[in-house]
Amino acid sequence: MSFLDNLMGGGDDPRRQQAMDFVNRYQQGSPYDNISGDEAFGHYQQVSGQVPQDVYQQSAQDAFAQMSPQDRIQFGQMLQQQARQNGVMDNAWDEDDNNYQDPGYLAQVTSRLQQQQPGLLGQLLSGGGGGGGLGSMLGGVSNTGMGGVMGGGSGGVGNMLNNPLAKAALGGIAAMAMRRMMGGR
Fold it and tell me: What is the value of pTM for the model shown?
């Protein structure tokens, strides 16, 4: 039985209980306070390729809606830069950064990335895209808030896992998708 089947099936399956715990912790406080980067990345990898496209996009929109407009702009700009550095969707990005304030727009962008190349968003954010990854670009973002000054970093998953923006995005998409698959809206 797949992870997705366990979420939808109900009952006392330990994986369903872990998913419920993750969703509950994600929804408490800021969208990154009560979850670890390892959890966010792991759960994102589990659900991103298994949920239907419409569930993925709505889950992404819900996750981005929990971020501030400024954090969405910063995340969108950095994702756009990383995607361009890796030759992904060169002509699909809107040049107006203010569009990133819209959770629906960011959800469309990330959903297109997922649809075109499953797993790519996680790869770009973890540094597996060849250019150091968003984790490298955001390595010095303050943990006191999702906004902050970009700083250097050594790249790779380690930095991404400590980054509040990446954790909020990946963890949020995973949590919202799990919630939907377990019957929540």
Answer: 0.76
